[in-house]
Design brief:
Structural class: alpha/beta
Number of helices: 19
Radius of gyration: 46 Å
Largest sheet: 8 strands, mixed
Shape: rod-shaped
Length: 619
C-alpha cells in the first residue's frame, strides 16, 4: 500500500491543482506572480520603427472639439503622415458607422486609398449570452470599397482584466478575421487586397510576412511587453495635423504649424505609425504585467508589432511535458520529505521556493519561456503537508505498536520514555548488554497435583501479579512466563545506569514479597511454596524476534542461558534467600551489595567454570 501511495499522492496533488486553478482567484495569483518577472527584468530597449500618434489632452485642447473628431481631420492626418514619410499607418480607431457627413467619409476613404499604406479597424462583437450570434463590424462601405485593408481590435483580457495575450484572429462563419497588428505586419510588405492570402496558420504558428508567430491557445500570442505605459514615442495628434491649411481653434489665432518641424525632423520617415486614444476619458486603457498607469490599447498593438519584428516571442511551456516534470519532481520530493526530519524539510522547502522562482526568471529572461510559479509552490506545499501527515500517522502507528507491545510487561515510565525515542527499539534484534533474572517455583508440579485447578490458578495469579509489580517498579520488563517461571530483562529497550543493580534489587524485593505472601497464605490456612532466583549480566541479542506471523520482544544468547542455569542450581545450595548471581553481575554491583562467594561451577554449554555468589542484601 505504501508503494502505491507514493505514486497516488503526486497524481492526486496534480489533479487538485488543476481543479484549484480553475478558480479565478488562483488563476489571478499565477498571473501576478508571472508579472513580477517583467518587473524584475525591467523595461527594454525599443527600436525606432514605431511611433504613436496620440489622441491626448493636448489634441482636445488644440482642436477645441469633442469626440469623435470630424473625419476630415483623419483624412488630413493621413495626408500629413504620408508627406512625412510614414511607411505604414494603422488606425486603432473604429470607423464602423457612417458619419452625418458623407463627404467626410468619402474624403477619409479616398485619402487612405491615395496613401496606399493605411490599415483600418473593425471588430467582432460576441453574443452576450450563450447561443447568441456573433456580429462583425467592418469599416464603413467607402473604405471597404476602396480596398483598404483592415483588422479587428478585439482585446481579450485574463481573469484579472489585464491584457497579456494578443488576439491574432477571430473566427466567424469559418472565416478568419485578423487583428490590426497582423494586418499591419502583412501590409508592411504591400500585399494590399490579397494580403490575407499570404498568411499561413498552423497549429503552432501563424506566418506573417516571413514572421513565424507562436500561437497560444488556438488564436493568441503572449505579448512580451517592452515596458509600462508611454514606452513608445508619442506625438500629439493635433501637432501632426497642424499645418498652414488647418485652423486650430485652441491656439487662439496663433499659427504654430507644428507639422513642418515634425516632417523635417525625419521622426516619421519609414516608420510604422499607430493612431489611437491615450486620454482616460475615451476608456481605451488596460492593465498590463508592468502595472502602474494603465496602457493605452494603441500601445498594446505597438508592443505586439515590435515583438514580432524583433522575433522576440514569449513561449508557454508544453502543459503535458510540464505536468510530467511536476509528477517526477513531486515523486522525488515525496521520498525525500519522507526521509528528512520535518525541521529539515521546512528548510528544504524554503530553498526549493527560491530555486523555483530563480528558475522561472532564468527561463523567462534567457530562454523566453513562461512557466507557472504559484502552481509549483502550492505543489511543494501540498507534498510537504502530505509528508507531514504521513510522518504523523506513521508516528502514531509506531507509538500504538510500542504501547500495545510493552504496556503489559513494562513500567509505564519506560513505555512513555520509549514512545519519546522509538528508535531505541531496534526491529529485528541487536546486540546489547543487559541483565536477566529468572525466578521459578520449587516443586510446583507436586503443588498443583495436591490442589484443585482453581486453587492452583488463583494462588499462581496472586504470586505472579506481586512479582510482576516488583519488576515493573524497578524499570525492568517482563519477558515472558514459562508456566510458573518468570523471565525479566533489565537495560532494554532503554538503557539503565546500572541494570545489574536493578536486577539485584528486584531479586531481593521479590524475596521480601515472597515472604509476605507465605505469611499471608499460612494465616489463611493455605499451603505455601518456595522460589529460586538467578541473575546474570552480559551481551545478548535483543529485539522483536520470532516469525513473520508471530513475534515477541525477547532476548537470546549465552547470557540468557546462563541466567536460567543459575536459577535451576539454587536447589543445590543452602542459601537463605535462594538468590544466586553470576560473577558478571557481581562485577557490576560488588561495591553496592552484600554477596557471599558460593562456588565455581561449570554449567551446561560453558567450557569455562563460572563463579557464583549468593546475593544477601544491598549495602
Amino acid at each position: 500500500m505504501s508503494r502505491y501511495r507514493s505514486f497516488f499522492l503526486p497524481v492526486l496533488i496534480l489533479i487538485i491543482l488543476k481543479i484549484i486553478f480553475l478558480i479565478p482567484v488562483f488563476d489571478s495569483l499565477e498571473y501576478k506572480a508571472q508579472d513580477s518577472l517583467f518587473h524584475m527584468r525591467g523595461p527594454r530597449q525599443i527600436s525606432e520603427d514605431i511611433v504613436i500618434i496620440a489622441i491626448d489632452d493636448e489634441s482636445f485642447s488644440a482642436l477645441n472639439t469633442t469626440w469623435p473628431f470630424p473625419r476630415d481631420y483623419h483624412a488630413k492626418l493621413i495626408e500629413n503622415l504620408s508627406e512625412a514619410g510614414a511607411k505604414l499607418i494603422i488606425f486603432d480607431i473604429e470607423f464602423t458607422e457612417n458619419s452625418r457627413y458623407p463627404e467626410s467619409d468619402m474624403l477619409l476613404a479616398n485619402a487612405a486609398a491615395a496613401s496606399n499604406n493605411v490599415v483600418f479597424a473593425g471588430k467582432v462583437l460576441h453574443g452576450k449570452a450563450h447561443g447568441d450570434p456573433d456580429q462583425l463590424l467592418t469599416p464603413i462601405g467607402d473604405i471597404v470599397a476602396n480596398g483598404s485593408p483592415w483588422g479587428i481590435v478585439n482585446m481579450n483580457s485574463d481573469s484579472d482584466n489585464a491584457i497579456r495575450k494578443y488576439s491574432l484572429f477571430e473566427e466567424m462563419d469559418n472565416h478568419k478575421y485578423y487583428s490590426i497588428g497582423v494586418a499591419g505586419l502583412a501590409n508592411s510588405r504591400l500585399y494590399q487586397s490579397d494580403w490575407a492570402d499570404h498568411l499561413h496558420s498552423e497549429d503552432a504558428h501563424l506566418t506573417v510576412a516571413n514572421h513565424k508567430i507562436p500561437i497560444y491557445k488556438h488564436n493568441k500570442a503572449i505579448i512580451n511587453y517592452y515596458g509600462p505605459a508611454s514606452s513608445f514615442p508619442h506625438i500629439s495628434y493635433a501637432s501632426v495635423i497642424d499645418d498652414s491649411t488647418m485652423a486650430m481653434p485652441g491656439y487662439q489665432g496663433i499659427e504654430f504649424d507644428e507639422f513642418y518641424s515634425i516632417r523635417d525632423s525625419g521622426i516619421l520617415q519609414d516608420k510604422i505609425v499607430l493612431i489611437g486614444a491615450t486620454i482616460d476619458e475615451l476608456h481605451d486603457k488596460f492593465p498590463t504585467p508592468f502595472g502602474g498607469e494603465w496602457t493605452p490599447g494603441v500601445e498594446i498593438h505597438a508592443n505586439f508589432i515590435e515583438m514580432v519584428q524583433n522575433g522576440d516571442y514569449l513561449y508557454a511551456v508544453n502543459p503535458w511535458l510540464y505536468m510530467l516534470l511536476e509528477f517526477v519532481a513531486l515523486l522525488l520530493l515525496w521520498f525525500a520529505f519522507r526521509k528528512l526530519k520535518p525541521q529539515l524539510s521546512v528548510l528544504a522547502l524554503l530553498i526549493l521556493f527560491a530555486l523555483q522562482y530563480l528558475l522561472a526568471y532564468y527561463l523567462f529572461e534567457r530562454q523566453s519561456y513562461l512557466i507557472p510559479i504559484v502552481q509549483p509552490v502550492l505543489a511543494l506545499l501540498f507534498i510537504y503537508v502530505a509528508s507531514l501527515i504521513c510522518h504523523y500517522l506513521d508516528s502514531l502507528k509506531e507509538k500504538r505498536f510500542i504501547r500495545q507491545a510493552f504496556q503489559q510487561y513494562m513500567a509505564p515510565e519506560l513505555v512513555s520514555e520509549l514512545l519519546k525515542n522509538p528508535k531505541k527499539l531496534s526491529y529485528g534484534g541487536s546486540l546489547q548488554e543487559i541483565s536477566v533474572l529468572f525466578s521459578d517455583i520449587r516443586s510446583f508440579t507436586t503443588y498443583s497435583e495436591n490442589h484443585s485447578p482453581e486453587e492452583t490458578v488463583n494462588i499462581l495469579k496472586e504470586y505472579l501479579t506481586a512479582m510482576v509489580n516488583v519488576i515493573v517498579e524497578n524499570q525492568g520488563i517482563l519477558d515472558k512466563f514459562v508456566g510458573d517461571e518468570i523471565m525479566a530483562l533489565f537495560g532494554t529497550p532503554l538503557p539503565l545506569p546500572n541494570h545489574a543493580l536493578n536486577a539485584c534489587k528486584v531479586a531481593l524485593q521479590m524475596r521480601e514479597k515472597m515472604t509476605e505472601l507465605q505469611e499471608k497464605w499460612r494465616s489463611e490456612g493455605k499451603e505455601s511454596f518456595e522460589i529460586g532466583i538467578g541473575v546474570n549480566t552480559g551481551s545478548a541479542v535483543v529485539g522483536n524476534l520470532g516469525s513473520e506471523q508471530i513475534f515477541d520482544y525477547t532476548a537470546i544468547g549465552d547470557t540468557i542461558n546462563l541466567g536460567a542455569r543459575l536459577e535451576s542450581i539454587n536447589k543445590e545450595y543452602d542459601t537463605p534467600k535462594h538468590i544466586i548471581i553470576s560473577e558478571f553481575t557481581y562485577e557490576h554491583v560488588k561495591e553496592l551489595v552484600e554477596a557471599r562467594y558460593l562456588d565455581e561451577v561449570k554449567v551446561k554449554g560453558k567450557n569455562k567454570a563460572v563463579k557464583i555468589y549468593e546475593l544477601i542484601n544491598l549495602k
